[in-house]
Write a structure and sequence with these properties.
It contains 28 helices and 6 strands. The N terminus is likely disordered. It comes from Acinetobacter shaoyimingii.
């Protein structure tokens, strides 16, 4: 179960994202839904897009479990590949990362004893999972069996090759009485398998039961094993509803009993058999279907603590998801079922999250301390959980600090977590010392994962200090392109951006992004002097920089073509100059109403599709935001009679078309005011094309 995990925020446009500092979003880049990185202090609220490589409540359970399994020596977490997106298209980071992505880089440190791809616990209905591996095993046995004549081997192999789908009914094989006895048995095995894949479990069970008594060793053991799977799927089917959803409480208890009996029978006959580890793994599925979380948790704990056993069957890549779905599945959990630090630590971190749900209560201090015996072999982990509780739940940072060791080396995720929590406490209690602390940890980072974590913690401080040097160059201190891009588009002030365009160490991409940001922000903040100073820095072939609208070599670059606007004609007497000359004129006469209408024409044009991305109050940029609606209002109120006023009335009304929501950036007016505008253009300028075209005032 994930507290607050089911609360999903709608995807936000990038203009909204630009107003947020490490807030939770799902942003759009191109046509893909991107989980844009989240980073915030006080990590006790579940964040899908803000997972960190440390044990904290805000992480997804699966992330925390992978980290714990790594510290237990059971899992290896491989380094994530470096992100290769261009600076302009950088919407992701290595750290923070999206929930679930860490699983892609996890593998077993201690190999399990299961047959490869025997089953995947990610899938509820496991019936179809052995179509390919089953064919390989069957072919190997047939080819090596000296009791099967070559001609009959071909018949069997061809027949098995036809079993390729689960979703369509397959006909049974006609067993020829002239075939050898062994061939007939293998053909019968195929018929049992066809019945199994056809969901005719009663027939499959009958045939497997007979084959479990034949002399052929492979057939005998495999049929005995398949009895487990046949009984499992027969039981499972009784709980599947009309729309394919599983209702555990409706599963036939007698079928489950027979299923467990088959597991026991197989393990008794073949305690070291080729399927022994897999058969033991099916116990977990049975406990889950029985609703026995206590037994399921015990079996999981046994597996965790017996990795050298022949019955060890955990896949580190999928095991945390199995635990999350079958133990922490949203129903009430009694923590007393956990007698293992791994499961209990996961539970504790989950129940230290903040939540607005009335039914949710975080774990109490007394309940946490009552777990001490379970953690007797892991005292450092227990002390850390106590510190997490003191800081996040009880809001007692100084007491939490006393439970944390001084950071030295980061050989385990627990070491990294302790150092990280200490940093969060410093951020809370002595924020003036936080940047230096993260700098010290950054210098001790052993790998890209650790370095990226400390980068993420340093970034807010560097943003505030306007330390542009930390973000530029091929060997920048802040290496993650997303943070570089974010600094330049959201935090860098005019001087920092100018310095980036001039610095020798700045890369071409960094200079271009700084130029683009200077141009778009100076225009939106009506700083025409700055716009005019920056305009000459446009590439000579700026018209080719059309962003994602083109497939040329500039598609991953800022869309500089947006600044090549050739003006527009409102009427023969009202002709707007191109953007370059418009800005030059506005620098001298910024209050000119016609020129401001022309700027509004640019904002309305398809050249300004990224303009709205920067339409937010920016504390680091000087000047009021341009809102074309204010220009229209000024002309309506004080402008001279004529086409310009008629056009202003028309445009002011159109600001609300067709939704009734103002998209002109100014303060919204009531519908009665819009009606006055409508009546005025109809009465004062009835012969204009604008008055004639208006049918509504929205």
């Amino acid at each position: 179960m994930i507290i607050n995990k089911n609360i999903r925020l709608p995807a936000l446009c990038l203009s909204s994202l630009l107003t947020m500092i490490f807030q939770s979003t799902s942003a759009h880049a191109g046509f893909e839904d991107v989980c844009e990185p989240i980073f915030q202090l006080n990590h006790n609220q579940y964040q899908r897009c803000g997972n960190l490589p440390v044990l904290i409540p805000s992480n997804d359970n699966i992330t925390n479990m992978h980290l714990l399994l790594s510290d237990l020596g059971l899992a290896t977490i491989k380094p994530a590949p470096s992100l290769t997106n261009s600076l302009w298209q950088s919407y992701q980071t290595n750290v923070p990362f999206e929930a679930g992505t860490i699983s892609d880089f996890v593998e077993n440190k201690i190999p399990n004893q299961r047959k490869s791809s025997e089953f995947t616990l990610n899938i509820y209905d496991e019936r179809c999972q052995t179509l390919k591996t089953g064919q390989k095993d069957f072919a190997q046995q047939v080819k090596s069996n000296v009791k099967i004549p070559d001609r009959e081997k071909k018949i069997l192999l061809d027949a098995r090759a036809q079993i390729i789908e689960c979703n369509s009914k397959m006909p049974l094989i006609n067993v020829d009485s002239s075939w050898s006895a062994t061939t007939r048995q293998y053909a019968s095995y195929l018929n049992a398998s066809i019945s199994f894949y056809n969901t005719n479990y009663s027939t499959a069970t009958k045939i497997y039961s007979v084959l479990a008594k034949v002399e052929d060793a492979w057939l005998k053991e495999t049929a005995q094993y398949m009895l487990i799977r046949s009984h499992l799927n027969e039981a499972y089917a009784t709980g599947v509803g009309q729309y394919g959803d599983l209702e555990v409480n409706k599963i036939n208890a007698n079928f489950l009993k027979e299923y467990f009996e088959q597991i026991t029978a197989y393990l008794k006959l073949y305690p070291k058999g080729q399927y022994a580890a897999s058969a033991r793994g099916y116990l977990r599925r049975g406990f889950w279907l029985s609703g026995r979380k206590d037994l399921l948790a015990n079996e999981m704990a046994w597996q965790i603590n017996n990795p050298k056993s022949k019955l060890y069957n955990l896949d580190m890549q999928t095991f945390p998801e199995e635990v999350d779905r079958k133990i922490f599945d949203g129903r009430a959990i009694n923590p007393k079922i956990f007698n293992d630090p791994f499961l209990l630590a996961t539970y504790d971190l989950m129940y230290m999250r903040s939540s607005t749900t009335e039914a949710y209560q975080p774990i109490s201090w007394s309940a946490l301390n009552a777990q001490k015996e379970v953690f007797k072999q892991h005292p450092a982990l227990f002390n850390y959980l106590q510190a997490v509780h003191l800081f996040y739940v009880q809001k007692k940072p100084q007491e939490a600090l006393r439970l944390l060791p001084q950071p030295s080396s980061f050989n385990h995720y627990l070491d990294l977590s302790q150092a990280f929590l200490r940093g969060e406490i410093i951020e809370k209690t002595t924020p003036q010392n936080a940047a230096e602390y993260w700098n010290q940890l950054y210098s001790k980072a052993k790998n890209n994962e650790q370095r990226s974590l400390f980068e993420a913690m340093l970034v807010p401080h560097l943003n505030q200090k306007q330390d542009f040097n930390a973000f530029i160059g091929n060997n920048a201190k802040i290496r993650q392109a997303y943070f570089q891009r974010r600094f330049m588009t959201q935090f860098a002030n005019e001087n920092s951006l100018k310095n980036i365009t001039q610095a020798k160490q700045s890369t071409a991409d960094q200079k271009q992004l700084a130029v683009y940001t200077l141009l778009i922000k100076s225009l939106s903040h009506q700083n025409f002097k700055l716009f005019n100073e920056t305009y000459p820095l446009l590439p000579t072939d700026a018209a080719q920089y059309q962003g994602s609208q083109t497939d040329n070599k500039y598609k991953d670059k800022p869309p500089f073509a947006n600044f090549i606007w050739n003006g527009s004609t409102i009427t023969p007497a009202l002709k707007c100059p191109d953007l370059k000359n418009l800005s030059l004129k506005l620098a001298h006469t910024p209050k000119d109403l016609f020129l401001n209408v022309c700027l509004g024409e640019y904002v309305r044009s398809d050249k300004a599709y990224t303009y709205d991305l920067f339409q937010y109050e920016d504390k680091v940029f000087k000047g009021p935001l341009f809102a074309r609606g204010n220009t229209y209002k000024e002309i309506i109120k004080n402008g001279p009679k004529g086409d310009l006023q008629a056009y202003a009335l028309y445009r002011a009304i159109q600001c609300y078309a067709p939704s009734g929501i103002n998209d002109c950036g100014d303060e919204e007016v009531s519908k009665s005011v819009r009606k006055q505008w409508y009546d005025r253009i109809k009465s004062e300028y009835p012969n204009t094309s604008w008055a004639k075209s208006l049918k509504y005032y929205w």
